[in-house]
Amino acid sequence: MRHSDLAQLERDFGIYLPSVQGFVESGWKHNLSLAMDAQPSLVTTANNGIPAFLTTLVDPEIVRVLVTPNRAAEIYGETQKGNWTTRTAMFPMIESTGEVASYGDWDNNGSSGANANFPQRQSYHYQTITQYGDRELDTMGEAKINYASELDMASALVLNKFQNETYFVGVAGLQNYGALNDPALPPSISPTTKTAGGTTWDNATADEIFADFVKAYQDLVARMKGVGDFDRMSELVFALAPDREAYLTRTNQYNVNVYDQVKKNFPNSRIETATQYDTDAGSIMQVFTPKIDGRQTSYCGFTEKLRSHGFVRGLSDTKQKKSQGTWGWIGRYPVAFTTMIGI
Predict the structure, then answer these.
(1) Do residues 154 and 322 lie in contact, with contact meaning Cβ atoms separated by under 8 Å?
(2) Residue 31 shares a structural domain with residue 123
(3) How many structural domains is the chain composed of?
(4) For residue 22, what are the domain limits?
(5) Which residues pair with 113 in a beta bridge?
(6) I need a surface site. Which of 28, 76, 151, 343 has the fewest CB within 10 A?
(7) Where is pLDDT greater, at 2 or 50?
(8) pLDDT(232) > 60
(9) What was the pLDDT predicted at 98?
(10) The three-state (H, E, C) secondary structure of the chain, written as one string
(11) 138: pLDDT confidence band, cut at 50, 70 and 90?
(12) In this predicted model, what pLDDT tens digit does every residue of 239-296 receive, in sequence order?
């Protein structure tokens, strides 16, 4: 079929046959000087596609990077003390003293008194700054990202992550301690030795893991000496790292797992997890009772949860400072805590 015939079909009937090829007629093959509608060279750059952005989808749902949860306040409780001008806090402590003597009508022996101490903690205040340019803000807007809002969330996250960390380890150089390094905490104890060797739970049986719970509880009982009617029916918290908590699913020969054993023997206990219990010195399990005679044994302290300072407008940018303050962890009754390291 000739090209002229194809063109006629397109004009007259709207029939397009792009895949049909035209061939040189046999009578013309001897004359190579015929042009036969030869294709001239390209004026534009050779291309076989379109701009990539035209086939790119931008998902409107933003994927946020995952971070570990802040668990200290949930585990120990949290309380505000003072405000951002408060630098030192005193916690009065009273101990009753006295002695008795044999009675006599004219005797003046025996005495009663009270000894007062004033332990102190120092606050630590910290800050972060958000900053964005006018053009930067509009550019992010082209990608449907509310950049100013994202920076606000980032600043709150940064501050709260640091605060959570101080609740566990305090602030170096100050009388500001954490639940894992307060000098008033009793010395840590070691787990039981496992049949497979070592003390960790990696190769431990369910009964061996539960034995560590019992050992930690027994250590706590030995120091509490019945204060506040403390016994296994009291409220208890077993705090450990998330990867150690996974071992509580191990079962013994009677098909009973560690978690069930813990809940049966310590019915008012709860198990909490936080990544901070996984330390360079070994994985930690901390056991404590949250209250003695209705009084909190510890809490996490802060001066202000968040202070949002004023916006500072530049020529074509905006800045804002945000700040917080922490007392770290306040151990009111450190005797109520047992720390087992090496699980």
Answers:
(1) no
(2) no
(3) 2
(4) 1-35
(5) 97
(6) 28
(7) 50
(8) yes
(9) 92
(10) CCHHHHHHHHHHHCCCCCCCCCCCCHHHCCCCCCCCCCCCCCCCCCCCCCCHHHHCCCCCCCCCCCCCCCCHHHHHCEEECCCCCCCEEECCEEEEEEECCCCCCCCCCCEEEEEEECCEEECEEEEEEEEEEHHHHHHHHHCCCCHHHHHHHHHHHHHHHHHHHHHHHCCCCCCCCCCCCCCCCCCCECCCCCCCCCCCCCCCCHHHHHHHHHHHHHHHHHHHCCHHHCCCCCCEEEEECHHHHHHHHCECCCCCEHHHHHHHHCCCEEEEECHHHEECCEEEEEEECCEECCEECEEEEEEEEEEEEEEEECCCEEEEEEEEEEEEEEECCHHHEEEEECC
(11) very high
(12) 999 999 999 999 999 999 999 999 999 999 999 999 999 999 999 999 999 999 889 9
Structure tokens of 194? 């496992």
CA distances from 124 to 86, 176, 305 (A): 10, 8, 12
Do 1 and 130 sit in the same domain of this protein? no
Please state the length of the chain.
343
Q: What is the mean pLDDT of the chain?
A: 89
Q: Is residue 114 part of a domain?
A: no
Q: Output the six-digit token pair for 68.
A: 């570990």
- Tens digit of each residue's pLDDT (9 = 90 or more) over 85-95: 999 999 998 98
> Which one-letter amino acid corresponds to residue 45?
T
In one letter, which amino acid is 86? T
Q: Would residue 77 be called left, alpha or beta, if left means φ above 0 and alpha means ψ between -120 and 50 degrees?
A: left
Spatial separation of the C-alpha atoms in residues 273 and 244, rounded to whole Å: 9
Name the residue among 124, 27, 131 with its Cα closest to residue 323: 124
Q: Are residues 82 and 3 in the same domain?
A: no
Contact 341, 282 (CB under 8 A): yes
This prediction has a pTM of: 0.82
| Structure token digits, residue 285 | 């399990």
The pLDDT of residue 169? 96
- The verdict on residue 158 lying in a domain is yes
Alpha carbon distance 337, 299 (integer Å)? 13
